[in-house]
Structure formats: C-alpha cells, structure tokens
Design a protein that fits this description.
Structural class: mainly alpha
Largest sheet: 2 strands, antiparallel
Strand order of the largest sheet: 1-2
Strand content: under 5%
Order of helices and strands: HEEHHHEEHHHHHHHH
Radius of gyration: 20 Å
Number of strands: 4
C-alpha cells in the first residue's frame, strides 16, 4: 500500500509547492501590469483583485503528475503507456487554458468563447473518449456513436460553463473542484487506474493552495482570483475525468451505472443552477449569455447570507447530493427516480430561498 501512497503524496506536495511559490509572483505581476478583476454591480467584491491565479493549475499539475509517475516507476519497475487520448486531452486542455488566459487579459465575446469551447470539447470524442452508455437513464442504454459523440460534447460544454459560472464568490469554484477531485481520487484508486489517481492528487495540490490564497488572502496584498484560465481549465479536466471514469468502469454493468450516478451527483448543483438561470433568462427574454445576478450564490446572498455562509451552504449541498444519491443507489433505487428526486430537492431549495427573499423585501418596504 505504501507503494501507491508515496507517489500520491509526492504529486500533491510538488504541485502545492509550485503553486505556493508562483501565486505570490503572479499577484505581483498582476499589480505591476494592472491585471485586475474590477468590481461592478454584478460582482460581490468591492476592490480590484488580481485575477490570474488559475495560471498555476496546468504547470503545477504537470510537474506533480510527472514526479509521481517517475517515482511510481522507480518503486514498481512498471512502465506506463500513454495513449493518443491523453495527448488529445492535453491539446484540448491547452486550448481551453489559453482561451481563458486571453479572456482574462483582453476579454472575449461570449459567442467566440462558445465556438472555441465547442472545438476543444469536440477533440475527445475523436479518440473514442465518449459517453457510450447511459445505463438505463431515461430508458437509454447503449448509444449510437453519433449520439454518444453529441452527448459527450454537450456534457463537456455544460460542465465547463457550469464551473466557470459558479466562480462568483471566494472559494466556490475551487472548493467545489476540491470535493470532486477528492471523490475521483478515491474512485480511480479503487479502479486501480493509478495515473488518474496521481493526476487528481497533483491538481488537488495546486487548487488547494489557490483556495487558501483566494479565501484567506488580504485584499490589496496577496488575495487573488483564478480567472477564466483557471475555471475553464478546471471544468474541462473535471469533465474529462468523469468520462474517463465511466469508460474505465464500463466492463462492469453495476460499476458503470454507479459511474453515471456518481458524475451526476457531483455536478447536480452547478449544472442545475446553469439550467435554471438559462430558463429564467429565456422566460424574461434576456440573452442566454448575458451575465446577471441569478446564480445560486447571488440568490443566497440576496436572501441574507454572508459570502462565506453562501459558500458553506453550496458546498454542503454538493456533499448532500453525493451522499443522498449514494444511499439511494445502495437501496436499489433506479437512476431515473434518483434524478427526479434530485431535481425536486433542488427546486424546493430554490423555492424556499425565493420565499425568504420575498419576505425580506416585504419587510424592507413595510
């Protein structure tokens, strides 16, 4: 067991050290060249904050992963084989990473970002990294290759945008990603897919360090936001890990169903929130891509929660859905019914928030 623990620790520590060294330097450069996330009526922060913290994620993760693989090979004398899917994933992640970096520096239109994201999302299915079986969800099992391709691209884009859009308060996108990465670290460990275990540990290391700077850094000193370079990269990687875990577990029908349910459970909050906001904008005849204050963290703060309280509630809600769905699965409840329960619980949660907000406004104007 110690043979696998040491590379995991090394991946985490190497990545964390690089992030801890790089982030203060990035803060310095952002101040020098005035690269800030500026406050406005939609955002919750009141001062200009450096916004390129996510730049550390890719290099720090790469160093941590490589270090862990080298140590693992030295310990076990096992040589890893890298398939074309890994290089395609790296290419897609690089596209997303550069897209986010340019957007952080200059700002890009929503339509252009959508097109580039679509291209990056389309790369994975070309090397058979696809969601090819829904295990009875909506009565669907094995998918036609074309349908599987479209669902995979749609899923990647939904997850990337969901993670990007929840990055609205301190610690939310990084805290959510930490929960997902911890889950996948253990899931890949149980599946004995050690490269992905090391990958999760490495990404977890730099994201955890960023979380500390983002949550507890002082404004005007060392506080930093991840920016689109970080949130888009995280969304793309988390989507990839989800699809890869589904494929790895596809040889076992029970594991395969659990993989679909696991992915849905972890993403229910950001994805349902994304869908809810899109529906609200459509009903109110607003552009789908227009930024506003309808997201779950905005709603919680309007209802009277502090930023840290809103963060705690949302992360607790993510953990609740994972635990609730796991319990339902162990009881033998089928996925369509679990899905229905999740949607109803999420809708009820927002209905309660709506009533609290409405009551608060009535008291304010009485």
């Amino acid at each position: 067991m110690i043979n696998i623990i040491l590379p995991i620790i090394l991946a985490f520590v190497l990545s964390a050290i690089i992030a801890a060294i790089a982030i203060p330097y990035i803060v310095y450069l952002c101040k020098k060249y005035r690269i800030y996330d500026l406050p406005n009526e939609r955002k919750v922060h009141k001062r200009a904050i450096p916004r390129l913290g996510g730049l550390t994620f890719m290099p720090a993760t790469t160093v941590g992963l490589v270090g862990a693989i080298v140590l693992w090979m030295q310990i076990t004398n096992i040589h890893f084989e890298f398939y074309i899917s890994a290089f395609v994933m790296i290419a897609g992640a690089m596209v997303v990473y550069i897209l986010g970096f340019i957007d952080d520096l200059r700002g890009l239109g929503a339509k252009l970002k959508f097109v580039i994201m679509f291209v990056a999302s389309s790369l994975l299915p070309f090397c058979n990294v696809t969601m090819d079986n829904l295990c009875g969800l909506f009565g669907v099992y094995e998918l036609n290759p074309t349908v599987g391709y479209l669902i995979t691209v749609f899923f990647i884009m939904i997850v990337v945008n969901a993670v990007n859009l929840i990055d609205g308060i301190d610690g939310l996108a990084s805290g959510f990603s930490i929960i997902v990465l911890i889950c996948y670290l253990f899931l890949f460990l149980m599946a004995k897919s050690y490269v992905f275990v090391f990958f999760c540990a490495a990404l977890l290391g730099c994201v955890s360090v960023f979380f500390l700077f983002n949550m507890f850094g002082k404004e005007g000193k060392n506080k930093i936001f991840m920016g689109d370079a970080g949130s888009l990269f995280l969304g793309y990687v988390l989507a990839y890990l989800t699809i890869k875990y589904q494929l790895i577990s596809s040889s076992d029908d029970n594991m395969h169903e659990a993989a679909i349910l696991t992915a849905f459970s972890m993403f229910i909050v950001p994805v349902c929130d994304l869908v809810r906001v899109a529906i609200c904008r459509f009903i109110n005849k607003k552009p789908i891509f227009q930024a506003d204050k309808r997201h779950i963290h905005h709603v919680l703060m309007t209802a009277g929660c502090s930023m840290h309280m809103a963060l705690s509630i949302i992360l607790a809600l993510v953990i609740f859905f994972v635990a609730f769905n796991y319990a339902m699965y162990q009881l033998g409840v089928r996925m369509p019914f679990v899905l229905l329960c999740d949607v109803l619980i999420f809708a009820l949660f927002h209905f309660v928030l709506y009533r609290i907000t409405k009551r608060k406004r009535q008291l304010k104007h009485s």
